[in-house]
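Workshop exercise sheet. Pairs work together: one partner reads the sequence aloud, the other fills in the structure field after running the prediction. Swap roles for the next sheet.
Pair: D.N. / O.F.
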Amino acid sequence: MKYLAEFRDAPAARALAAEIRNSASRPWPIMEVCGGQTHSIIRNGIDQLLGDAVELIHGPGCPVCVTPLEMIDKALAIAARPEVIFCSFGDMLRVPGSESDLFRVKSEGGDIRVVYSPLDALDLARKNPARQVVFFGIGFETTAPANAMAVHLAARHGITNFSMLVSHVLVPPALEAILDSPRCRVKAFLAAGHVCCVMGFWQYPPIAARWRVPIVVTGFEPLDLLEGIRRAVRQLEAGEARVENAYERAVTFDGNRPAQALLDDVFDVTDRTWRGIGSIPRSGWRLSARYQAWDAEARFDVGGIATKEPANCRAGEVLQGTLKPYQCPAFGTQCTPRTPLGATMVSAEGACAAYYHAGRGVEPAVHG
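Structure field:
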């Protein structure tokens, strides 16, 4: 808790919330991009503290949630192969594919292992030279440097039984896609602080200028979020549209340039499909030509998988910020953390899971 308690001070939070309520001349729709921010907002009741001054719209910033269904199905096909040790972070194991999930594949004999770093998977490849070790590389720019380093080290040391199934997505093109949508109501963004730790925020000023939208780089604790909202509302009330950094203790304009150089070496920018949203041009990474030998998708020939989302799952609308989780008819009934229809109910950063665990829109159980 050291260095965190000061950002969780309740009286300071109430004072900031009051300042925001008193300064807002109208309800301002502001989107927090990151799923971690969404969970903090709901868990701490920040949206309730703000009353009608601000409508917080939950964005597509949950990496598990936006991993496309076809990529999940590719992971399932690879993980079921007897020669494969399939490695993933734990929150991917219950994400539903078209007909199964990684937990079920594991129960049917697949060698699936939860790891805490892609370097753990690389170490498994060193120790199991007769097996193919595959790491499921998902996420935004935050997790990409570690994944890039694992592939870089595999190439440097000639570890040929390691490969990566890559499904990385990028934040700035997603913001542009949201702003381009005719259904967009967002007037300002809270940018994800951990993404900006890696990438800086030099990519955001052109977006703020083109769409006349304030963007405030924001952290994850209650006072971080309230300060980000306060700055966004201040800009909106003044008719301004610029990028501000409200997370200076962690984020600089340039970001981590050595990490960015590694990413430029290992990955190429590509079009990417986002689960529930669709294809966004130049919104993802794939392995560059130099590292194609470590591409699991090519190694195991799992291209061409066709998928279809469940008709009663409206997670795509939740991810685009046009629907609150409790407004989905399946929420809390057909779709729960134990029986999820979509990834937004599974992930630790999913908006549906945040609402469910906070009891928002969930009918209380009736006991006889």
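Discussion prompt: The chain has 16 helices and eleven strands. What would you look at next?
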